[in-house]
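Q: Sequence in, structure out?
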Amino acid sequence: MKRFIISQALWALCHFMAISTAQAQDTGSAKAYSLPQFIQTGLKNNYGLQIVRNEEQIAANQATKANAGYLPQVNLNAGYDGALNSNNSKNRTGGATSSERNVFNHGFTAGVNAEWTVFDGFKIQTDYKRLQQLRLQGETQTRIAIEDYVADLTAEYYNFIQQRIRMRNLHNAVALSKERLRIVFERYTLGSASRLDLQQARVDFNADSAQSLKQLELLATSRIRLYELMAVKDIEERIVLPDTAIVVNDALDYNALLDATLRANATLIKAAQNRTLAELDFKKVAARDYPYIKLAAGYNYSHNEYGSGANKNRNSWGPDVGVSVGYKLFDGKRSMERKNARLDMDNAELAQKEIEQTLRADLADLWQAYKNNLRLLALERENLITAQENHYIASERYLLGDLSGIEMREAQQSLLDAEERILVAEYNTKLCEISLNQISGGIMTYMQPAQ
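A: Exactly. Output:
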C-alpha cells in the first residue's frame, strides 16, 4: 500500500512539472506587443475597418458638383438608316400611273448636344450640400467603427493580462499544494501523518493542477481573440506583453467627461448630421415650388442619299440653341411629401435629444460603477494583505505541526480567493474606465505610449 501511495505522489509531482512546462512553452518563441502596437496593427489589418473605410471613400467620391447636377450633360450621337421601297402612284387628273421598284434611300446623322439645368428651385445646391453631409457622415461612421474596435481590442488586451495574472496565481497555488504534498509525504513515510492526510493533500494538488490546466485554455482563447481582432494570420504565435498588471486610472473627472461626451461623442455627432440631412430633404421637396430653366445647345450634321426624285443627295449641318422654362402647376404628392419631410425633421431632432439623454444616463451609470469599483478595489487590496498575513501564519504553524491540513487548505484557498477578487475588481474597473473614455470620445488615448 505504501508503494502505491508513493507512486501516486510521484505522479502528482510529474503532473505539476507538465503544467510548468506548458507554461514555459506559452512564453517561448513569443512576439512582444504593447497596447499601442496592438491598436496600430489592428487599425491597419482589421477587415471590418477596411470595409468601413472603403464605404467612406465611396461617399467621398460621390460628393462632387457633377453628381449634384451643377455641370451640363454632353452627349455625342450618330445614326444611320436605310430603306428599300417600291412605289406605285396614279395621277389624279389624267389617270396615268407610274411605278418605281427597289428604290434605296439612306442617310447618316451625327451631332454633339449639351443640356444644362440653370435653375431648378435650388435643388442642385441642396443636393450638393446633402452629398457633402453624407461624406461627413461617412467619416463619422468610420470614427464610430474605429472607436468600437479600439475599445474591444483594449478590453481584450486587459483580459489577456487578467488571464496571465490568474495563471500566475494558480501556478503559485499549485506550487503551494506541491510543497504541502511533499511535507505530508515525508511525514507519512516517518509515520507522523495518516494516509487520509496524504490522500487529501494529493486531491487538493490535483484539483489545483486541473484548474491550472483549464486556465491555460482560457489564456490561449484570449490570445487567439487578440490575433483575430488584429487579423494576424499566425494565431499560434505567442505574445509577450510589457504590462504585467492592470493599472487603473483613478483620476477621471465626471464633469470633464460629461462636457467631452456632449461635445465629441461620435454617435451624437452622427445624430446631428442626420438632423441636417432631414432639413436638406425638406428643402429638396420645397424646391418643387419654383420654376425650372434649362439650356440646350448642339451641333449636328446629316447626309441623305435618295434613290429617286429630283435630288440625288442632301447635306445639312450647323449649330442649334434653345432655352426651356417650366413650372409644375399641380402635383398631388407635393403636399404629402412636404408634410412627411417636416415630420422627418421633427423625428431627427427628437432622435438627437433622445441620444443625448441616453448618453447622459449611460455616463452616469458607468461613473457610478467606476467609483464603486474603485472603492471595492481599495477594500480588496486591504483584504489581500490580511489574507497574505493569514497564509504566512498558517504556513508557519503547519510546518510546526500546530495546524491541520484542512485548516492549511482553507488559508491557502482564502489567499487564492482574495487574489481572484482583487483581479476581478481591477479588470471591472478597467472596463468602466475604457467605456467612460469611449463614450466621451477619448478612447484613442490608449494609442499613446505609457508614460
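The radius of gyration is 41 Å.
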